[in-house]
Amino acid sequence: RREFIKTSVKVTAASALAGVALPHVHANVDDTVKVALVGVGGRGKGAAVNALSVSAGHGPTKLVAMADVVPAQIASGLNGIKANLVKQKLDVKERMDVPVDRQFIGFEGYKNAIDSLGKGDVAIFTTPPAFRWVFYQYAVEKGVNVFMEKPVSADGYGTKKILEIDKVAK
Questions:
Q1: Axis crossing angle, helix 156-169 with helix 132-142, rounded to the nearest 10
Q2: Residues of the chain with pLDDT > 70: what percent?
Q3: pLDDT of 3
Q4: Which of 45, 122, 129, 147 keeps 20 to 30 A from 166, CA to CA?
Q5: Residues 6+ apart with CB under 8 A from 115
């Protein structure tokens, strides 16, 4: 009986669709995950390179924004990340697109960097842990995924805030 029902359903579906002309349509889908780096020091550069590296075993990623409170960190970070990608023989233009208007300086720069992303993209936080919960809360409100360096928090208050925000994120 089960085989008869399966076959009947297939034949009926095929018959119903036999006269339907389906147009040839392709979806132009870009499945590249955009990445914003908040905190562009030594570990920030390393985390960005890891995220952009083929060896990470994920789909295509592209660094699109950077934020730091120290202006020199942005230039140093861009140069360091590019050099590392070149060393790995990776296409820099394919993996990085951080024009001057997406290089943010100052204490509110994290908001602009996160705003450069869409839902499901990734923000990397490699700043001192005291500020992480503020960044995390903003990213969760925007629907952005987060990677945070450890330690995630340096005190009880920050830890409590991270755990509260985590409940919302889930």
A1: 10
A2: 79
A3: 54
A4: 45
A5: 142
